[in-house]
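Hi there, hope your week has been kind to you so far. Please have a think about how the structure follows from the sequence. I've dropped the whole record in just underneath, so have a look:

_____
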Amino acid sequence: MVDRAVNNFYFPGMARPRTFDEAQVLRAARDQFWNKGYAATSMDDLMQATGLGKGSLYGAFGDKHQLFLKVFDAYCVGSVESVKKALEGPDAGALERLRQHLLGTATGSAAPANRRGCLLSRGTSELAAQDAQVADRALETFRALEDAFVRCLEQARAHGDLAPHADPRKLGAMLLAVQRGLEAVGKAGMDEATLRGMVETAFEGLPVAAKRRR
C-alpha cells in the first residue's frame, strides 16, 4: 500500500507546492488590469504587481488572457452577489431598495476615486468586440443583474407599489441601462447631483399603483 504521507513532501521533478496566497495575487492582478486596461498591462506589470515570477504566474494561472478571465469572472460573480444582497428583503420596501441602490450607484460613480469605472464595464468595452469569452461572461452578468432588478420590481408590483399592468422585465432592463449609463457618464466627470437626478427621473416615470398617487 502506498503511504499517503508522501503527498506532504516535495521530491525533485515534482511540481513545487504553491507558496503564495492565490486570493491576494488575484486581487493584485485585478487592480493592475482595472487601472491600466487589458492591452496596456504587460506580464512585467503583472509580475511587479503580484510579486511573482513569470514561471509562477504561468504555472498557476496560464497566460495573461487566462489570468484576466479568472479575475474578470471573480469580479462578475462578486458584483452580482453584492447587488442581490443589497436588494434582498420583503415585498414592502422593494421599490425603495432598488431606488436607493441606483442612487448609491450615482453617488459612487461621481466620486473622483471611482473614475476608473468598474472592471465589468472596462473589460466589456475594451474586449467584448473581439473576445467571445469576455463578451459571453459580460452578457451573462448583465442578465443576472437585470434578473435581480426584475425580482425587486415583481415584489413591488405584488405589494401594490407598481401598477398591475407594469412589466417588471421591461422596467428591469430599462433600469439596468440607467445604471450602466450612470457609471459611464460618472467616469467622464458628471456631477453627483445630475447623476442622482437621472435616477429620480427614471423612478418618477415608473407606472406606479393608484394608491401611491394619492
Summary: Residues 68-205 form a domain with the Tetracycline Repressor; domain 2 fold (CATH 1.10.357). Residues 160 and 209 are 6 Å apart (CA to CA). Residues 132-159 form the longest helix (28 residues).
